[in-house]
Amino acid sequence: MTDTTLHDEIALEQKHVDRVYTRLARLRADAQQAEVDGYQLAKVGNFGSLVERDAMVFHAAKRRHVFDAEHEGLVFGRLDMHPETDLRDEESVARRYIGRLGVRAEDGEPLLIDWRAPAAAAFYRATAAQPLGVIRRRMITSFGERVTSLDDDLLDPNAAAADLRVVGDGALMAALSRAKGTGMRDIVATIQHEQDLAIRSPASGVTVVEGGPGTGKTAVALHRAAYLLYTDRSRFAGGGVLIVGPSPVFVQYIETVLPALGEESATLRSLGQLVPGVNATREETAQVRAVKGSLRMRKVLRRAAEDAPPSNPDGLRMRYRGEWLVLSRRQVEEIRRRVGRGARRNEVRGKAFGEVLDALWASVKERMHIEQSRFDDDLSDHEDFRAFLRNWWPLVTPQEVLSWLADPRKLHRYADGLLSNEEQRQLSRAVRAEPSIDDVPLLDELADLIGTQPKPKRKTRQAQTLGVMGGRRDRVQREADYRDYAHVVVDESQDVTPMQWRMIGRRGHAASWTIVGDPAQSAWIGDAQEPGRARDEAIGRRTRHHHQLTTNYRNSAEIFEVAAEVIRKVSPDLPLPVAVRSTGIAPVHLRTGGDGLAQVVREAVEKLLGEVEGTVGVIAPDAAFRDRVRSWLKADDRVGVVTALAAKGMEYDAVALIEPGLVDSARTLYVALSRATQRLTTVATTDWR
Ligand SMILES: Nc1ncnc2c1ncn2[C@@H]1O[C@H](COP(=O)(O)OP(=O)(O)OP(=O)(O)O)[C@@H](O)[C@H]1O
């Protein structure tokens, strides 16, 4: 290949790319005009035209937003197909351009095919062994609107015309070697065959994707969400797609990917954010997680939810019309048991109050010369009676009930026969005012057990479900505790605790699922069977489609070898992914005495900042250590200091792992060691390998 050949080919592709951008500008202008026309309709003023206006503005704004989205690398692929395949152009070569969205010329000719469309599948799936009608696959790399390079795969040399040119080498390798920004990038231009199969797996049922570190599970999950929204927009955008990730840093890392894919109907939440009004970030130790995450907590919480409140009075004694009205503690507790059994305490308060009134009336009715209704009315207004009710059966919040577990004596009653003394001790000490990530499913469970006070029903406005009219975005507004998602994506599923599965399951009763994870990266030390059981309960009996990813695209082979060494010690037979990129740069392992640690860490991080253009992750064994390490370092946008647990799912150009020997399990260490794309430095005061 000569430079002129490449130059000529680039010029040729530039012509097509220009045509696409020109057409896109036209479509954008049309959408803008439609929006303006929609607003004009409002001036007509009757109800019908207002509804029409809303619909028109809504759809136009939605279209405009799609056209406005960042379109760096809008056109990224071209397929030259066997002439009989389709889309003949004037040169009688069937060719398809693949891009981030679909664009048609005015006469309907497809200028660009959306990567999610069936016609684009061959771009990702064709191989030399199975060309699927593709003669040449071309990847087009651009900077802004300018085509900068081309990479071709000749898949069917026998069918290629003599003058067909093949240029470039390795778009995938080029993509993998690029420095990382702080957010994840989409991979639409270089999705690989096995990934494509998982992305386009059937929309119904449960798609389970497993694979080692860096195999693209997260990328696949997100692209799958975008694919589903494309294939059945009304089902998935209407019902919504919930994407659950392990931590807020992770959610931040991936949240830029979906808009880049042109999708806005997805809700991203970390496990600490699934319950409205709670945003938990505190991590528990592995021991406490094993207790809080265990299914045994269901019963512990049920007992707590049925317990008397701390304000419980010692029976009822009050004066009324010269008489003493008395109910013993035993009597009121008997009512509590009867009314509370199997019911949600906040929802049956009215019933409980009625029973107390009945019991009082039964004890004095012989001596009262009034109607029972009068008696009820008087007592309901009586301050002593009202004070009794408030203390005896207050409206409680999940947070309050959870806080009762901090009292060792109470917890002993709730956990009797369920948790060992040691587990009880750990649990009661780990219940604090500020909820941890593992408290969130407990709060969700309690909310389910205690219910809410029945409220008078109010009608919700239609606009809530239709979307934000004329707003900057076309995001559909859902109520805070929306639970009817059409699809649920669970990332890093190996670390979802049984109680978390229950919480996620409540939000996807009728959903189809995509579950991605790597069992080898699991930090769960509780009952090994429970997570699987809880997961199966959450997803039900839907058909499962299994996919295994086998290539590690993140780590250099040199870095992954260090991680692999660690996991092989605990799982010698585990099939590990193959790291495709070799850099020739060996990881650096530093040893120091305790006194010198801060200085060595500072120097190591400085050095890494000089060696890579992008991000540096500094990983500490636990939260306390993370805070110490933070205090040693200057703030820098390129540096993220996280715990080994919070590093789950994350990726950095370089990683400095501090005190690997203190990371609490080999599996978590495996996670921490497999986060870097280019450089890995470990700093230790002990021998850890
Ligand atoms: N086909 C691809 N083309 C280009 N880059 C890819 C491809 N597949 C994956 N990558 C890149 O590899 C890196 C790892 O991907 P991802 O984070 O999805 O892996 P993962 O399997 O979820 O990893 P882990 O389990 O370790 O968290 C990302 O930078 C991603 O963009």
Automatic annotation (TrEMBL):
The keyword Protein transport does not apply. ATP binds at G211, G212, P213, G214, T215, G216, K217, T218. Gene3D superfamilies: P-loop containing nucleotide triphosphate hydrolases (3.40.50.300). Pfam families: AAA_19. Keywords: ATP-binding, Helicase, Hydrolase, Nucleotide-binding. GO terms for biological process: recombinational repair. SUPFAM superfamilies: P-loop containing nucleoside triphosphate hydrolases (SSF52540). GO terms for molecular function: 3'-5' DNA helicase activity; ATP binding; DNA binding; hydrolase activity. GO terms for cellular component: cytosol. The keyword Protein transport does not apply. Residues 190-556 form the UvrD-like helicase ATP-binding domain. This is DNA helicase. It comes from Rhizocola hellebori.
